[in-house]
Design goal:
Elements lengths: L18 E6 L2 H17 L3 E6 L4 H10 L6 E2 L10 H19 L3 E5 L3 H12 L4 E4 L14 H11 L2 E4 L13 E3 L13 H11 L4 E6 L6 H13 L3 E6 L6 H7 L4 E4 L4 H10 L2 E4 L2 H6 L7 E4 L11 E4 L4 H11 L12 H12 L19
Parallel strand pairs: 1-2, 1-4, 2-3, 4-5, 5-6, 6-7, 8-9, 8-11, 9-10, 11-12, 12-13
Keywords: Isomerase
Family: Belongs to the UDP-N-acetylglucosamine 2-epimerase family.
Organism: Pseudonocardia bannensis
């Protein structure tokens, strides 16, 4: 087994004319690429290989597993690069180049503006392999916000052949037929199996509620739980989910008795990703979870912890007593607009656009389902 061989079995025999590597370097990227892998498999005209890599490849591998799309290739690193972007990029560049030489894909697909996405796009460009940039439209006019994702997105936009956006044009990319709106593919993931959470996510998406997601493990964070009942009383449209090791705390038990509050010891990763993406704000003493939140579109508060080395503008490190005032600031700034309605076909639109790029379809846009004659 080489360092980039799949950990689970062997790759299937190649039986398609075109194949795409779906390269993820973080859990938020997996949340967008996993539904795309399923859409490719359902259409069965392009072979998609899921790739787990990044600074912590096994965390990405586990995220694919949690979303029921096993990683076909887990690209292990020869050394731990740490968190500095230069070290991560240097370590990944050689490994990803080796992967592209070994697999010789027809194209690669990356999401967003992480370091892994930027490096993969650069290496693919050097190998003259087309790059598909998923969710290229999440961009700002500020090169430093979010940092370094916005700058990375602009770099990828200069290298990509196809831009798939959530809505509107892709900033920093040429406008034309290769800019296609597909929606946010995270909506195509399975809904939480726990009906309490499934209904909560629906209320949030319909604009009927806002979610404050709180994950606490350290005893020093217990004082935050004392403030949550007051938050529920202040905002009748706010709901709270508390999870983690502090759920046996007396204050947590009292919180569990209140309406609009759910207390659980642990959340499966698939449900955790969905809840983070739906939340108005995440509060946690887990730096890794807080670091994932901006990639899922959610501002986060890191409780009484050191600033992440590259936190971006959405992550704040707050001392325990000041956490709730920060949460209130985020809630007060929230526009309370319902999320864009999903039709569940975001990932299918991605597959259609890529099929068009390969000449397998006459149109880059997925046609809406036609009513059958029996519906008339």
């Amino acid at each position: 087994m080489t360092a980039f061989d799949p950990l689970l079995g062997a790759l299937p025999a190649q039986d398609h004319d075109h194949d795409v590597l779906l390269i993820a370097g973080s859990r938020p990227e997996v949340a967008r690429l996993a539904p795309v892998a399923t859409a490719f498999a359902d259409a069965d005209r392009i072979r998609a290989f899921t790739v787990a890599t990044g600074p912590d490849p096994m965390a990405v591998h586990e995220a694919y597993e949690a979303l029921a799309v096993p990683a076909d290739i887990t690209l292990l690193l020869r050394e731990n690069p740490g968190h500095a972007p230069a070290a991560v990029a240097a370590t990944l560049m050689t490994r990803l180049d080796e992967l592209l030489v070994d697999q010789d894909p027809t194209a690669i697909m990356v999401h967003g503006g992480g370091v892994t996405a930027a490096v993969a796009a650069q290496v693919a460009f050097w190998r003259q392999i087309p790059v598909v940039h998923l969710q290229a439209g999440v961009a700002t006019d500020d090169l430093l916000c979010p940092f370094p994702q916005e700058a990375n997105r602009r770099i990828i936009s200069q290298l990509a052949s196809l831009f798939l956006t959530t809505s509107g044009p892709a900033l920093g990319s040429p406008l034309g037929p290769n800019v296609i709106t597909v929606g946010d593919t995270i909506a195509a993931n399975p809904q939480p199996a726990d009906l309490r959470f499934a209904r909560m996510v629906r209320r949030v998406r319909d604009g009927e509620a806002r979610l404050v997601l709180v994950g606490l493990d350290r005893p020093a964070s217990s004082e935050i739980i004392d403030d949550l009942p007051e938050l529920l009383e202040r905002d009748p449209d706010t709901e709270v989910v508390l999870f983690g090791d502090l759920c046996d705390d007396d204050a947590a038990c009292r919180l569990a008795e209140l309406d609009r509050a759910v207390v659980v010891h642990a959340l499966p990763l698939a449900e955790l990703v969905t809840l983070v993406a739906a939340a108005t704000v995440l509060v946690s003493d887990d730096p890794e979870l807080v670091a994932d939140a901006p990639g899922l579109g959610t501002p986060a508060v890191l409780v009484d912890g050191p600033h992440p080395e590259h936190p971006g503008d959405s992550i704040r490190s707050i001392l325990g007593p000041a956490v709730m005032s920060t949460v209130l600031q985020v809630l007060d700034a929230d526009p309370r607009q319902p999320a864009e309605v999903s039709d569940g076909r975001e990932a299918a639109r991605v597959e259609q656009a890529v099929a068009w790029m390969f000449g397998l379809s006459a149109s880059p846009r997925l046609q809406p389902p036609q009513p059958s004659s029996t519906d008339a």
